[in-house]
Design goal:
Elements (H helix, E strand, L loop, with lengths): L1 H8 L5 H11 L6 E6 L1 E14 L6 E14 H10 L3 E8 L3 H12 L7 E3 L6 E8 L4 E8 L7 H14 L5 E5 L8 H13 L3 E5 L13 E2 L3 H8 L6 H15 L3 E5 L5 E5 L4 E4 L12 H14 L4 H15 L10 H12 L2
Parallel strand pairs: 1-4, 1-8, 2-6, 4-5, 8-9, 9-10, 10-11
Antiparallel strand pairs: 2-3, 6-7, 11-12, 12-13
Helix pairs in contact: 2-11, 3-9, 5-6, 7-8, 9-10, 10-11
Length: 346
């Protein structure tokens, strides 16, 4: 039902609009964004499956290769850099080998890492995925993490890093994966300070933390997160708008961008404007990290002169590209332009 409603009411994108969006994307190289949140290292163990274990009804994966990718707030920052911008990462890692891999990969992508703090009391968050190569099928995921809130000296150092860095960035992204960095104490310290300095705050939320985000500029929840936050089951256009507007006014933000998977997006603005955007994805291979792409692209678009509607359109094109990739991946500027060009020919 939601998908049908969006198809009927979705924004049309003509050739003139495409050229405007491309002009906005060309300015991404001037963007400087602080990304605050949970730093995650994604590990992939690739192998072949040829039999079922005699010990339990599970596949036996003969491991052949191990690769690492940046996840969480690191993936948001990676998307910013891939699209031509500059990212300053703020977060916490443990004192372990995984920290070294994560920081090495951040630096390899040209990111500033002076905001990455080491907390010896917790591990670097690791998500290990075992993947059967025949079909790129994930067999199991193993998480190693400490989700306790950051407190004490580490919290104070994070706040200090953020306040010092605010003056050299255009906007802040809060990437909340619920691993302990985005806390009420942190936000109490930085939200008013950030707004007083005229910076936009864009949040990719965690479903149980919505009460933390009051006063941010924009939030990008998915459908289930909106349902959990409002208690409203989204069944159609009417319930979607009711839930979105409830969240919009509860948080006092300028806009809510609800991502709806294959059904597209819905943008609700504080002035009452509601825009539906149908998905442009040609095929959904993996939705891992799609929210990271949306929030990073939206922030860069706003900084580059887009209005909320245009920023949502560009983010939708970026999401359409990334869901066609496997695992936590990024969208490049060239891929985003190509996606726009394909729409231009239709």
């Amino acid at each position: 039902m939601i998908k049908n409603d969006i198809m009927k009411k979705s924004l049309s994108v003509d050739k003139k609009e495409i050229q405007k969006l491309k002009s906005i994307i060309s300015k991404f190289r001037k963007t400087n964004i602080m990304v605050i949140g949970d730093l995650i290292l994604d590990e992939f163990i690739w192998g072949n499956v040829s039999r079922i274990s005699p010990e339990a009804p599970v596949p036996v994966v003969c491991a052949e290769e191990e690769t690492f990718r940046l996840g969480g707030a690191c993936n948001v920052a990676s998307n910013i850099v891939a699209l031509g911008g500059n990212a300053y990462v703020i977060g916490v890692v443990g004192e372990d080998k995984r920290k070294d891999i994560l920081i090495k990969n951040l630096k390899k992508r040209g990111m500033k890492t002076s905001g990455v703090l080491v907390d010896k009391t917790r591990p670097t968050t690791l998500k290990t995925r075992v993947v059967a190569k025949q079909r790129n099928q994930q067999v199991v995921r193993i998480d190693k993490e400490n989700v306790d809130f950051i407190r004490g000296e580490i919290l104070n150092k994070l706040i200090s890093k953020i306040k010092k860095g605010i003056h050299s960035v255009d906007a802040l992204i809060l990437e909340d994966y619920g691993k302990g960095v985005i806390t009420p104490d942190l936000l109490k310290e930085i939200l008013e300070y950030t707004k007083n300095n005229g910076k936009k705050i864009i949040v990719d939320p965690k479903r149980h933390h919505f009460s933390y985000y009051k006063g941010v500029t924009l939030i990008t929840p998915n459908q289930s997160e909106v349902e959990d936050a409002t208690g409203i089951k989204i069944k159609d256009k009417k319930t979607l708008e009711k839930a979105g507007k409830t969240l919009l006014f509860d948080l006092g933000c300028e806009a809510v961008l609800v991502t709806l998977g294959e059904s597209g997006m819905c943008l609700l603005e504080i002035d009452g404007e509601v825009s539906y955007i149908k998905s442009v994805a040609q095929g959904v291979f993996d939705v891992s990290g799609a929210g990271d792409t949306v929030v990073s692209c939206f922030a860069q678009s706003l900084i580059s002169g887009a209005n909320l509607r245009q920023a949502a359109l560009i983010s939708n094109f970026a999401a359409g590209v990334v869901v066609g990739k496997f695992g936590t991946e990024v969208v490049t500027k060239e891929e985003l332009i190509e996606s726009l060009e394909k729409n231009n020919k239709k």
